[in-house]
Write a structure and sequence with these properties.
By secondary structure, the chain is mainly α. It is built from seven helices and no strands.
């Protein structure tokens, strides 16, 4: 495995460079990136919906379930494609509500477990942070969507730099192996 990686070190570095470029472009155009992700999901939902209806028509028994799932997928896909801004906001509101419920549940569990489990306060802190995330997203979903895209971009840059460094490290190992032989 190491030999294979050292021979192809440049592919690792290339992957890193592409991740860095993706991250920089995403930071430069977060709105465009968010729009592209929503549209991509919209087309996926549309195609999945058509496939589910075709499956419902082809497979006997429980056809209604596949047709229903397909119809919902088609509608969701079309809404995402035709109204991408509203789709982003609705998705962030759903995430916000989930985070609020999860945060409150974690806090309640931490209080209930405080005597039975060591360091249950970690769960309470996690719950508080999750609750705060939900509240922030709920009251400002547009900024939350862009923050999510920015987080993905920063991760891509860090990941890309790590891959580039790994690629050059592999190159160094390859050169050291060649010199020893």
């Amino acid at each position: 495995m190491v030999e294979l990686l050292t021979r192809n070190w440049w592919l690792v570095a290339l992957r890193g460079a592409l991740a860095v470029v993706f991250g920089i472009l995403t930071l430069a155009w977060p709105g465009v990136t968010l729009l592209a992700l929503i549209l991509l999901w919209g087309f996926y939902a549309l195609i999945d919906g058509i496939s589910a209806i075709a499956l419902g028509a082809a497979v006997p028994g429980h056809r209604w379930a596949n047709v229903l799932i397909g119809a919902v997928g088609i509608v969701a896909g079309l809404v995402a494609i035709m109204l991408p801004g509203e789709t982003a906001v609705v998705l962030l509101v759903i995430i916000a509500v989930w985070a609020i419920i999860a945060g409150v549940t974690q806090i309640v569990a931490a209080i209930a477990l405080r005597r039975a489990v060591a360091h249950a306060w970690f769960l309470g802190v996690t719950g508080a942070l999750t609750l705060m995330l939900g509240v922030v997203l709920l009251f400002n979903p547009g900024a939350g969507a862009l923050a999510l895209v920015t987080t993905i971009a920063i991760f891509a840059v860090i990941w890309g730099v790590s891959l580039i460094l790994m690629g050059f490290r592999l190159r160094g190992l390859r050169n050291a192996t060649v010199q020893e032989a």
